[in-house]
Amino acid sequence: MATTRSQPTIAAGATPQKTGVPLTRAATYLLQRYSLVLLWIIMVVLFLVLLPNSVDLGNASRAVLGQQTPVVFLGLAVITTIAVGEFDLSFAFIYGLAGTAFPALVVLHGWPVWPAILVALAAAVLVGLINAVLVVVVGISSIVVTLGTGSVALGIALLMSNQSNVSGLDPGLAQVALGSFLGLPAVFWYGVVLVVITAYVMTATPLGRSMLFVGSNPNVARLAGIPVRRIRFGGYLVAALLSGVIGIILACGVGGFSTSTAQVQMMPALAAVFLGTIAVVPGRFNAIGMFIAAYFLLTGMFGLQLLGLSGWVTNVFYGAALIIAITVSLLLRRRARA
Q1: Would you say residue 16 has pLDDT above 70?
Q2: CA-CA distance, 51 to 305, in Å (whole number)?
Q3: Which residues, 6+ apart, have CB-to-CB distance to 7 below 8 Å?
Q4: In sequence order, which residues have a C-beta less than 8 Å from that of residue 141 and are 6 or more positions away?
């Protein structure tokens, strides 16, 4: 006797039960890419609870976002070299060389502003060129070369400044860095524009795709017809140019430059770059993630300072952030390969 397969019935007026899979996937997607933003919000709330009621959130936000910090520019310089498979440790020293050379030539040697700016930028790019030649052409380790050229750049900067802080630039030049737009200084908006341009180039142009291809596997990239040597060469030059530009901009903003502050920016920039790999594009060095990470770190430091912690806590905070960021980035890349 033939049997019939029973069919499920749905009661009148009832609707089929929807699965939560799409919602779960969406939540997972957002958490993977924007967990750092969530942590940033939690950090702000925590500081608001711990800090005195006299702290104004609006003023504090403007103070963080408007800090005259080269972290974003230097972070972009690091990303530019890492993207093509290189590692440049001279970026902070190049920043210090250009930042010192410009006011030293104007104040100590009486140069006009524009020739001094051009010479300072040329000095920065020259260090990048030396890095590129020794690493790309000669084949020396990038870490060894960039540490060496960075030390030379620092020594030249100290020589040009007579080993002292250089100040006395025309106060009118401060508008280059501090001119306000929407309540924030111009240097902040310069960083935003450069981050957007870098993100676009790296993700939506043939040049950016070639850079990532070279960084991931230069031998295969060479077989595919990509000019590997030229791209690696360009990475060092662009990184040096970015480092030099921010040095000059900040010198304009404060009316001078202190060479000793250049090395202080190395740890925050590296921490922001590696911490940025857990945001937006997990496991990959990216400009927008670095931008978010930079201000996440600045918020943390600003909050700790308001709580009365300073000095030693800076080294501990940035050092711990760098170690954690590198560890998480490595785990994410291993997971992506798997």
Answers
A1: no
A2: 11
A3: none
A4: 135
41 burial via Cβ count (<10 Å: 0-12, 13-18, 19+): exposed
CB 73 within 8 A of CB 187: no
Global confidence as pTM: 0.83
Q: List, as own/partner pairs, every contact residues 76-79 make where C-beta atoms lie below 8 angstroms and the sequence separation is at least 24, other chains included.
A: 76/194, 76/195, 76/198, 76/242, 76/287, 76/290, 77/238, 77/239, 77/240, 77/242, 77/243, 77/269, 78/239, 78/269, 78/270, 78/273, 79/198, 79/273, 79/285, 79/286, 79/287, 79/290
Q: DSSP per residue over 25-48, as a string?
A: HHHHHHHHHHHHHHHHHHHHHHHH
Pair of tokens at residue 95:
């920043």
State both tokens at 115: 């020739």
Q: Residue 131 has which token pair?
A: 């890095």
Report DSSP letters for 216-258, one per residue.
H-HHHHHHTT--HHHHHHHHHHHHHHHHHHHHHHHHHHHTEE-
Query: Rounded to an integer, what distance in angstroms lies between the CA atom of residue 275 and that of residue 325?
Result: 4
Q: What is the DSSP letter of 289?
A: H
How do strand 180-181 and strand 184-185 relate by DSSP bridges? antiparallel
pLDDT digits (tens, 9 = 90+) for 200-254: 999 889 998 999 889 888 888 898 889 999 999 999 999 999 999 999 999 998 8
User: Number of C-alpha atoms within 13 angstroms, CB side, residue 5?
Assistant: 2
Residue with the two structure tokens 């040597």: 229
